[in-house]
TrEMBL record:
<dbReference type="InterPro" id="IPR036380">
    <property type="entry name" value="Isochorismatase-like_sf"/>
</dbReference>
<protein>
    <submittedName>
        <fullName>Uncharacterized protein</fullName>
    </submittedName>
</protein>
């Protein structure tokens, strides 16, 4: 079985902006290392604001 990471609508306002929360910031902290692994393997490019 193959694992998939889907990130939808991870905008600045919802993470660490006006509508953000410490929990949302923690999600980014956990997703970044996973994205780095996927980027090396599958050439995925992501942009964090």
């Amino acid at each position: 079985m193959q694992s998939v990471l889907v990130v939808i609508d991870m905008q600045h306002d919802f993470v660490d902006g006006v509508l953000g929360s410490p929990q949302a910031e923690a999600i980014v902290t956990n997703v970044r290392p996973k994205n780095r692994v996927l980027s090396r393997t599958y050439h995925i490019h992501a942009r964090y604001s």
